[in-house]
Design brief:
Arc Repressor Mutant, subunit A, 2 domains, elongated, mainly alpha, Rna Polymerase Sigma Factor, Chain: A, about 200 residues
């Protein structure tokens, strides 16, 4: 019989990889990259306009991970720490690659119209949507909507954190999220014949 792996074994192995990465061991860096690259490419693709930019952000992000890994204190899971670096790197990469992102200010979008509110609330959610379909539709959202939606709905950032990250007001973050949800519902209905 084989011995069942214990969570402590995983933590010990992770600590060994971290220590070896701090010592700039290329094998440990490769192992860390292999552990998280696929998932982190998915993270980067949510914030970058195309896969080429997502791959660039991924590589840039791992360079930061290896450069900063000695600062990892273990207050969160290593994966959470790596994810945060990838999100920040992707957003920075996105900001550099696009000349202008239009965020509707909270004054411009004082409130959703009654029609939009009704559409969002009454929309039929009974049909199943695969995660791949949803990701494809989310990627079609306008840039400002997509960034705020992903940070809030996927990464669980607060509006205050989003505002700080993107250099916008909390009200603008809230209005972008509301508009993103309405737009997402419409896209799902149009593209996947839902509702």
């Amino acid at each position: 019989m084989f011995r069942q792996r214990d969570k402590r074994d995983d933590l010990d192995a992770e600590q060994e990889i971290i220590q070896a990465c701090i010592a700039n061991d290329p094998k440990a860096q490769r192992k860390l990259f292999e552990m998280y690259a696929t998932k982190m490419l998915g993270v980067c693709s949510r914030y970058c306009p195309n896969m080429e930019d997502a791959r660039d952000a991924l590589h840039e992000g791992f360079i930061k991970v290896f450069r900063l890994i000695e600062k990892f204190k273990g207050n969160s899971a290593l994966e959470t720490w790596v994810t945060r670096i990838m999100i920040n790197t992707s957003i920075d990469h996105f900001k550099k690659s696009i000349k202008y992102i239009h965020y509707e200010s909270s004054e411009d979008v004082h409130a959703l119209s009654n029609e939009d509110q009704a559409y969002y609330i009454e929309s039929d959610d009974s049909q199943q949507v695969t995660s791949k379909q949803l990701l494809e539709v989310i990627n079609k959202l306008p840039d400002g909507y997509r960034l705020v939606f992903n940070l809030y709905a996927v990464e669980n950032y607060t509006h205050k954190e989003i505002a700080q990250e993107l250099g916008i007001s909390e009200g603008t973050s809230k209005s972008q999220l509301a508009r993103a949800r309405v737009h997402l519902k419409k896209l799902l209905k149009e593209e996947l014949n839902l509702g």
